[in-house]
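From the pipeline queue, job 12 of 40. The input is one protein chain; the requested action is below.

Action: predict structure.
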Amino acid sequence: MSFGLGHGVPLDPAPGVVAISADELPPLPDSIISDPESGRLDPRAWFKEPGNRFELEIGSGKGAFLVQQADLEPNTNFLGIEWAGEFAAYTSDRIRRRQENANTHRNVRVMHSDAAQFLQWRCPDNIIDVLHLYFSDPWPKTKHHKKRVIQHQTMFDIWRCLKPGGELRVVTDHDDLWAWDEAHFEHWASDKNASEPTLAGPKIPEAPAKVRAFLDAREALPYERTSFAAPESAGEHELVGTNFERKFRKEGRSFNAGVLRKTGGTAN
């Protein structure tokens, strides 16, 4: 499917400069079968200043958040992951043009990939300061719920990849998706503002055995709920400040937002 995002002009994602190239992200090794960690690589090495603070956005779309926030935080490296190839190319092209025309946004890279798979098989422990999940695809049909980003396995992988104290920030305009997210959060995060867990949300799949064992072995839940603080790029009364959000605010849609902060250290 083509969205015509280039309006007839070829998109240049600048592989190896903006878009993550095949050399930077080679295929998973055969050894992954016996050694699940053998495919790990450090995405911070893809940036000019790998020692900078590192934030990741799942579902970067047309790149509005990345473009706005990376300009305000030049000392933070931002990696946007987008599963739709044309959107990933469009965002990469936007970043490339800013690099060439204004010598800015050299702290942004874009990956065309499945973010959940990247977190599970590629990303090392304890490297992400903030993971942004804004307006992700709600996959409304029941048969497609397995494609939603928030799953028990992904909650574990995000926790593992976040630094201690790192944050998962979530915003959505889709109430059913938010109920799904909240049902998972009940299992993963303590909420000091809630009296008792309700566990009254929609039915969600059981956690995989290894993830269930991880949860059962912990004395405290892996995350704690905290209040959502809008990024600097957001305007007054905005949560993220993208054109997507502004469009739906005009339509009168409501929004849900939350933050989960990692507690504890490593998965081992």
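Job complete. The radius of gyration is 18 Å.
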